[in-house]
Design a protein that fits this description.
The chain is built from 18 helices and 16 strands. The protein is α/β, with parallel strands linked by helices. The strands form four sheets. Strands 1, 2, 3, 6, 9, 12, 13, 14, 15 and 16 form a ten-stranded mixed sheet that branches. Strands 4-5 form a two-stranded antiparallel ribbon. A two-stranded antiparallel ribbon has the order 7-8. Strand 4 and strand 5 form a beta hairpin.
Length: about 500
């Protein structure tokens, strides 16, 4: 009996040694927790991201995917955004729990591609799915040298935000003024014809008919406007150009709460870029062609001159303005129009729910400058890149495609992010407006050689706002960027000075 136990013990010992040898060869830890009932055959795919606002939403999507997939188990990791690509590259080279998929802004895609951290996606057909409806802006954002090297996920852009309550009040005020004017003209005509006598009317020193105030107040009813008429008039009042805003300001009987008709953050290029976005070219439509650099042209000169002239109408102090303050002023009812990003919608709704905002609002397409010069806003698309070092590229691509094909508004309600395609039913006109503006926006270029261009452009905007010569400033900016790209000095031929002159409105 003892001999049999000894033999059994020896067999078990050999089995344990063989098992240990197997696990050491396979790279799996003996102490790793392993699912049962066959789930241990799933391949692990890791996702890295940097924005904590996405945590709850991504966690839900990962749980959903893990339940759905029979072959893949996704792990989620929130990491620091500082030197993000460098951290991914280091982890990938060392093979230390590196990501198979990672979320990044599209302007860094050239750097990621050249480092081997992003490659051509394997499910490009999703970008042509008509049910989702990815715009050209979304596709251009993830295009590099004619290839899709990431999946568009969510985006940010800017547009014109307006105080709807103020516009509705102005519609009613102007409608009442029109009725009063018509009644006054009719009374004057009746008086001239001798149809009105006695105490019904009086004449001022100039001989014009005036009403007895008490009688007028008793006889004149407040104007009534249907909701359909009100909506039509508000839409008609929305500015098609920046000059329309100036004309509105010139005729607006503003309430005491209004400190400025139009205010925006003149210190941030993201909110200024629309002035030149339709005419400045940095890298072509996909922002990846170093041969296409056109910063200094007659259109940009005139657009920036228009921008400079606005300083006399809206004297915005650069040292006292920033985006948070601008948005808060709007929420407090101090401004009628502003330039805002889509995060403004959630912030305004939060203020309304807390009783800190009593106004209705809306978002509309960014106006042109005038009838001759259009505008285009800038956009940034956060995308899903598949790591070139991934050992499971097919599974990583499938998971990335799963995320970017979201067709509910859950991402927005949980994180405040707008998905980068049109197939999401937000049931919110303001959010739909931002999506429409995004579709016509200019994706931030991804050229590494011009990475500091935005700092230089922001400085140029600041100098021009403060009165610097527009032509000289843009000429110097163009020469500097071409020097940086070509490595040799370029002397631009001087172009004619601006001819655009703002003709509508007066100083506030």
């Amino acid at each position: 009996m003892k001999m049999r136990f000894r033999l059994l013990g020896a067999v078990l010992l050999v089995a344990l040694l063989l098992a240990a040898l197997y696990y050491s060869k396979s790279g799996v830890s003996l102490h790793e927790e392993r699912p049962i009932f066959g789930s241990n055959d799933k391949t692990t795919v890791r996702l890295w991201y940097t924005d904590s606002a996405m945590t709850d939403y991504l966690t839900g999507r990962v749980v959903e995917y893990n339940k759905k997939s029979k072959t893949t188990r996704v792990e989620l990791e929130l990491v620091s955004g500082l030197e993000y690509l460098e951290a991914i590259n280091k982890a990938s080279a060392e093979g230390d729990n590196f990501p198979d998929v990672f979320i990044m802004t599209h302007d860094g895609l050239e750097k990621a591609y050249l480092a081997g951290l992003a490659g051509e996606i394997r499910n490009p057909e999703i970008l042509d799915d008509k049910a989702l409806g990815f715009s050209d802006a979304a596709k251009n954002a993830v295009t590099y040298k004619g290839k899709y090297i990431a999946y568009p996920y969510y985006f940010e852009t800017s547009s014109l935000l307006y105080n709807r309550t103020y516009l509705e009040d102005e519609v009613r005020t102007r409608a009442q003024a029109e009725i009063d004017a018509e009644e006054g003209e009719a009374a004057q005509a009746a008086a001239d014809a001798g149809e009105i006598e006695g105490a019904d009317i009086n004449s001022d020193e100039a001989g014009e008919v005036v009403y007895d105030e008490a009688e007028a107040e008793g006889e004149t009813a407040a104007v009534e406007i249907s909701q359909e008429q009100l909506e039509a008039k508000v839409q008609e009042m929305l500015p098609k150009t920046i000059e329309d805003i100036l004309l509105f300001a010139d005729n607006y009987n503003a309430p005491d709460t209004v400190e400025s008709v139009f205010q925006w953050d003149v210190t941030d290029i993201f909110y200024n870029y629309f002035f030149v976005g339709n005419y400045l070219n940095l890298g072509g439509k996909s922002g990846d062609d170093i041969s296409q650099i056109d910063v200094y042209n007659e259109n940009t000169i005139n657009c920036m001159s228009f921008y400079q002239q606005l300083n006399q109408f809206f004297a915005i102090d650069e040292s006292a303005v920033n985006y948070d303050k601008v948005l808060q002023d709007f929420i407090d009812g101090k401004t009628v129009f502003t330039v805002a990003t889509s995060d403004a919608v959630a912030k305004i709704e939060a203020a309304k729910s807390e009783g800190k905002c009593s106004f209705d609002y809306g978002v509309t397409t960014m106006p042109a400058l005038n009838e001759n010069y259009g505008t285009r806003t800038m956009s940034v698309t956060n995308c899903l890149a598949v790591n070139g070092y991934s050992e499971h590229p097919d599974k990583a691509n499938d998971f990335a495609a799963f995320l970017c094909s979201e067709n509910t508004d859950t991402c927005y309600t949980m994180s405040g992010k707008l998905i980068a395609h049109e197939g999401v039913p937000y049931n919110n006109d303001s959010l739909d407006s931002f999506l429409s503006v995004y579709g016509n926006s200019v994706p931030m270029p991804k050229l590494m050689a011009t990475s500091n261009f935005w700092v230089k452009l922001e400085i140029a905007f600041a100098d021009i706002w403060d009165g610097a010569n527009v032509n000289d400033t843009l000429k110097t900016l163009s020469e500097n960027v071409k020097l940086q790209i070509n490595g040799s000095e370029v002397e631009e031929e001087r172009l004619p000075d601006a001819t655009v002159v703002i003709t509508e409105g007066q100083e506030e």
